[in-house]
Design goal:
about 625 residues, alpha/beta, Rossmann fold, 13-stranded mixed β-sheet, two-stranded parallel sheet, about 15% strand
Length: about 625
């Protein structure tokens, strides 16, 4: 009790240091002078620079267009105030884990900004860089969500976070080719990310960072985006190591391989906001969209994402994403990098919580509907195989056993099997190192962001990666214990040493003596399948979830291969490029009925959660509109 009381008092003191003890610091860059803040976190020096522009504001003629990098200073030094966050990109609010009373929680179309956190401004002894891609979903995410001062100072790395366009502003595309390219290019969100990564290459040395030692990471769809950049040749030079937390390109419903479906989404959206017209060309429709207010566009997005599922995804356009990631990975057409990949023990819990009456279990018909909805792109025979594998045949009609099987189904298909699949692919290359983790630690104190019944749920590891149990912003409500603090120090030590070395062949002695030593994390091999299980204490586990992973990555993978090889048309039938016919609209409406049957979902989620809950939640949104 005394130790806990001391730690709470310690945390209060640290929080006051975070908000009160920073002084101004100036750095000269290619764009002029920038003013940031510098101070002490847990006895370590750290400076931060917030709201640095990396692209021209995507307003007016730049809306729905590829990002334009900020031009460098032309001899005239200008001074830029980088002491406060700039608005996040357009999305539902409030933005979780942010301070609702500051610009950190604001949203605006003028949002292409990044933040730099650095323990040293020494340009001689440059530090490795960790670029974090936030991505709750394709419609939510913010570079302002996580304060990286503690991670930067404790792990002795430069941390960069950034915003990129979301929802209709970042994922809409005309899928219409013309002589100079697409009229609304596909994957604007990825293009934003790419420009931010290029900014890091051009400027991070001014902040004490090494542009040739950049680790890119993220959680959920942010992790998917991070990995996509290892499949995009024009991004190869921007990434040297990779950290994937509860997300990767193998997760279902994150990539659209049918460009015609993306085109249909465009026409559905322009019809919703009144830009379709009887005889309008695509160019006229795009011009109409560029004239509409932010409010009108966002309202149209809200209507459609409540009605239709899987509305915004990254698109295989043949330009940026050359082919489906599964094909590129199997063929070895990706940049070989050192990799950390893993997931949380109960990543599926937030999705399961949204199933109707789940506290009493779920009925058999809901269990079957869940499978038909999640895996509608598979044929009937494959869905029957999934049903057979995940049915408890001794208790077929038991709601409790159906709930348990649904939980295992979602964990296996969305997290466990994709994690092991990616690890198997990347570990083939002997010149790089692959490491796999299972995050299974949950603190003992009540956590307002993570209810206890959810276990070690999705995104729970993120505050530990960013060091919040060691020193957190004063608006963050969780009261951490000394054990939480030690786990966070361990995670920061692991992540930090990977960012520094790319492997653990040299025993990863912590850059911070307080972090101490920990288990040696063995390289992942397909033959041994060793995971680092983060807990208190941590341990090395072998062949975790072997049956479920073998079903998805072995048996079912072969069935899908066979189905694709014998098909004479794409597995997703192209939708016509004119107005959607009534049958297709009826099919989408069927999906909307499934989604509406599920209750409201918490914001902290990954792609699996979004499959069910986004369509029915209703939240008040505060927007800085044009």
């Amino acid at each position: 009790m005394k130790l806990t009381s001391f730690f709470i008092l310690f945390s209060i003191v640290i929080n006051s240091l975070i908000t009160q003890s920073f002084s101004s610091v100036i750095v000269t860059t290619n764009y002029g002078d920038v003013i940031g803040r510098s101070g002490i976190i847990n006895g370590k020096q750290v400076s931060f620079f917030l709201g640095l522009p990396y692209a021209i504001p995507p307003l007016g003629k730049y809306r729905f267009q590829a990002p334009q990098p900020i031009p460098q200073s032309s001899g005239r030094i200008r001074r830029y105030d980088a002491r406060l966050y700039k608005p996040s990109c357009i999305q539902p609010t409030p933005i979780p884990w942010t301070n609702p009373t500051t610009a950190q929680a604001n949203i605006h179309e003028d949002c292409l900004y990044l933040n730099v956190f650095t323990p040293s401004l020494n340009k001689t002894d440059k530090l490795p860089v960790f670029v974090w891609i936030d991505g709750t979903s394709s419609t939510e995410g913010s570079g302002s969500r996580w304060m990286a001062t503690t991670l930067a100072s404790q792990a002795n790395v430069v941390v960069v976070t950034f915003n990129y366009r979301l929802g209709v502003f970042g994922f809409l595309t005309t899928a219409e080719l013309k002589s100079h390219g697409r009229q609304i290019p596909a994957n604007i969100a990825l293009l934003d990310q790419q420009v931010a990564l290029r900014w890091v290459q051009d400027n991070i040395d001014h902040f004490g960072g090494n542009p040739r030692a950049v680790t890119v990471g993220g959680d959920g769809l942010g992790a998917t985006a991070a990995q996509l950049h290892t499949l995009i040749p024009s991004s190869y030079n921007y990434i040297h190591n990779l950290i994937l937390q509860s997300g990767n390109v193998r997760m279902v419903h994150t990539i659209e391989s049918n460009i015609h479906k993306a085109r249909s989404i465009f026409r559905l959206f322009v019809a919703e906001v009144g830009c379709l017209g009887q005889n309008h060309t695509v160019t006229q429709q795009v011009n109409c969209l560029q004239r509409l207010s932010t409010r009108k566009l966002f309202q149209g997005q809200k209507v459609l994402t409540q009605q239709y599922w899987r509305f915004f995804k990254y698109v295989v356009d043949g330009v940026l994403i050359r082919d489906h990631p599964r094909i590129l990975l199997d063929q070895g057409n990706f940049k070989k990098v050192n990799l950390i990949v893993g997931y949380n023990l109960n990543d599926s819990a937030k999705l399961i919580q949204q199933l109707p009456h789940q506290n009493q279990g779920i009925h058999r018909d809901i269990f079957l509907l869940l499978i038909d909805t999640l895996f509608d792109e598979f044929n009937h025979a494959i869905r029957r195989a999934i049903i057979h594998e995940y049915t408890n045949w001794q208790n077929v009609s038991s709601p409790i056993f159906n709930l348990r099987q649904a939980d295992k189904l979602i964990t296996d298909s969305l997290y466990a099997a994709p994690t092991e699949y990616i690890a198997n692919i990347y570990s083939r290359d002997s010149s790089t190192s692959t490491f796999v983790y299972l995050y299974s630690y949950r603190g003992s104190n009540p956590d307002p962001y993570y209810p206890s019944q959810l276990g070690v749920s999705n995104t729970m590891e993120i505050p530990y990666v960013f060091g919040y149990p060691v020193a957190k912003p004063n608006y963050y409500a969780t009261a951490y214990t000394m054990t939480d603090r030690q786990v966070s120090l361990e995670v920061m030590s692991l992540w930090g040493n990977f960012i520094h070395h790319g492997c653990f062949s040299i025993y990863p002695k912590s850059p911070n003596a307080e972090m101490g030593n920990h288990l040696i994390w063995p390289r992942y091999k397909k033959s041994t399948k060793q995971y680092y299980c983060v807990n208190s204490p941590s341990r090395i586990i072998t062949l975790h979830n072997a049956n479920g992973n073998n079903f998805w990555n072995g048996y079912l993978e072969k069935q899908i291969d066979y189905e694709h090889s014998r098909a004479s048309v794409p597995s997703q039938v192209p939708i016509k490029t004119d107005d959607m016919d009534q049958n297709n609209q009826g099919q989408l409406s069927f999906y909307s009925i499934i989604i509406i049957a599920l209750s409201c979902i918490a914001v902290i989620t990954t792609v699996g959660l979004l499959i069910f809950a986004r369509k029915i939640r209703r939240r008040t949104t505060t927007v800085i509109f044009n």
